[in-house]
From TrEMBL:
UniProt-recorded name of the protein: SHSP domain-containing protein
Source taxon at top rank: Eukaryota
PANTHER family membership: HEAT SHOCK PROTEIN HSP-12.2-RELATED (PTHR45640), RE23625P (PTHR45640:SF26)
GO cellular component: a single term: nucleus
Gene Ontology MF annotations: unfolded protein binding
InterPro entries attached to this UniProt entry: A-crystallin/Hsp20_dom, Alpha-crystallin/sHSP_animal, HSP20-like_chaperone
Length: 256
């Protein structure tokens, strides 16, 4: 993975029954009650030393804000105050109205926000655009591969581009804000593209962890051995690979 500029943030996993009001106090919920399921933006933050009731989460300007304050006062008038404030950029299509948060038994604050991929609106003009996009894959398309599903991916936003001289290239872009190039891993196996990213931060006062996993099946003809990826200054992972159009229809044997 190479870098074209800067980057940064986020995400997935679990589903929880927690408070949908972003300003409410956090609830102490055992982590074992959290079932794994749909795609979410997720942040984990070590809040040891804070009372969960003093920690507040809210969404402001498409950012999750975490704030907490803990005071200890003694009879002789001495006191100590501990405060924390952290903010995290929300990814595109995050459903901020349904922010949920909880503190695990080992003092980890978990904040989750559902990510709702936009429903594709099928109008006549869109159907024509899709037909034109599909025609670029050639006459002898693989009858097994889901070409419409590939070009409709809201995560990778794939495009097949005719770059001239009979050459074509597949280009994709995936949002990976707040991650550095060395924290992102791109791999391909059996034409399945997998992007994984993980960010860990630890010091004497806190620990944080965020992660991202996305995958997509690449169409037959994609030259995966020449696939390249770049991180641009807008936090987009750009992925591209040459595409060679199949020259004959794939036949499928009927099993007896």
């Amino acid at each position: 993975l190479t870098r074209r500029a800067s980057s940064s943030s986020f995400h997935t996993s679990g589903n929880i029954n927690a408070n949908a009001n972003a300003g409410n106090s956090l609830l102490s919920i055992p982590i074992a009650t959290v079932p794994a399921a749909s795609e979410k933006f997720r942040v984990q933050l070590n809040v040891a030393g804070f009372n969960p009731d003093t920690i507040k989460t809210r969404v402001e300007d498409r950012r999750v804000i975490v704030e907490g304050k803990h005071e200890e006062r003694q009879a002789n008038g001495d006191f100590s105050v501990r405060e924390i404030r952290k903010s995290y950029d929300l990814p595109e299509h995050a459903d901020s109205a349904n922010l949920a948060s909880f503190v695990t038994p080992n003092n980890m604050l978990v904040v989750e926000v559902p990510i709702n991929a936009p429903q594709l609106q099928r109008r006549a003009s869109q159907t024509i655009a899709d037909s034109q996009a599909l025609s670029l894959f050639g006459q002898f398309r693989d009858p097994i591969f889901d070409y419409p599903g590939f070009i409709a991916s809201a995560d990778f936003r794939p495009r097949l581009i005719d770059i001239g001289n009979g050459q074509k290239s597949i280009k994709m872009a995936l949002a990976v804000k707040n991650y550095q190039p060395e924290q992102i891993r791109v791999s391909v196996k059996n034409n399945q593209l997998l992007v994984q990213a993980e960010h860990n931060y630890n010091d004497n006062n806190r620990s944080e962890r965020s992660f991202l996993t996305k995958s997509i099946s690449l169409p037959p003809g994609t030259q995966v051995d020449q696939l390249k990826s770049f991180l641009n200054g807008e936090g987009q992972l750009e992925i591209e690979a040459p595409f060679i159009e199949p020259t004959q229809m794939r036949s499928i044997e009927v099993q007896h």
